[in-house]
Amino acid sequence: MMLTLQELESKMITARSFNINSTTLKFNNDEYPLAQIKRSRVRTNTLKDHAVRLIIFGLIASSVVWIVTPNYFGIYAGPFSIFAGMFLALLSVRKYELQVEFEHSDETGLQWISIAKTNNKEVKDIFESQVEKIQHIIR
């Protein structure tokens, strides 16, 4: 399946992907109220971060299979599901993340959430400029 130029551009992260005004931070179709954002940062994921992510995804997939399958089938499907979960996590691994510390309106409290992810060094520079803009507005 070939992507058109317009579809390819819509998947790429550019400075135009972000829209920050006095009340909201918008990234593509996602919107975050600035009143609930306390800090922002660009995080560089390490090999350790990726390994932990792979293990967690594998264990989550395996536990779901063990819960929903009969005991005799889970013996065979459980180990396979660990590798399937790890493979899916591997597909979503990115080196750089734009994160904001978000204060939820329920009892969840403060939590770092990822707004966008990339492997591209140029996009990381865009993330850093967005962090500066966010920090300037929320101060």
Q: What does this molecule look like?
A:
The chain is an alpha+beta fold. 49% of the residues lie in helices and 26% in strands. It is built from 4 helices and 6 strands. The protein has helices spanning 5-11, 47-68, 71-91, 121-138; strands spanning 18-20, 24-27, 30-33, 37-44, 96-103, 110-118. It has a 3-stranded antiparallel β-sheet, covered by helices on one side. A 3-stranded antiparallel β-sheet has the order 4-5-6, covered by helices on one side. It starts with a helix and ends with a helix. Mean pLDDT is 86; it is low at 5-10.
Q: How is this structure best summarized?
A:
By secondary structure, the protein is α+β, with helices and mostly antiparallel strands. It is 49% helix and 26% strand.
As a percent range, the share of strand residues is 25-35%
Radius of gyration using CA atoms only: 19 Å
Note the run of SSEs as H and E.
HEEEEHHEEH
Unreliable runs: 5-10
Shape field: elongated
Q: Give the overall pLDDT as a whole number.
A: 86
How many helices does DSSP assign?
4
- Please give the number of β-strands: 6
From the helix content, strand content and strand pairing, which structural class follows?
alpha+beta
Largest sheet: 3 strands, antiparallel
Spatial strand sequence of the major β-sheet: 1-2-3
What is the first-to-last residue Cα distance?
Answer: 46 Å
The share of residues in helices is: 40-55%
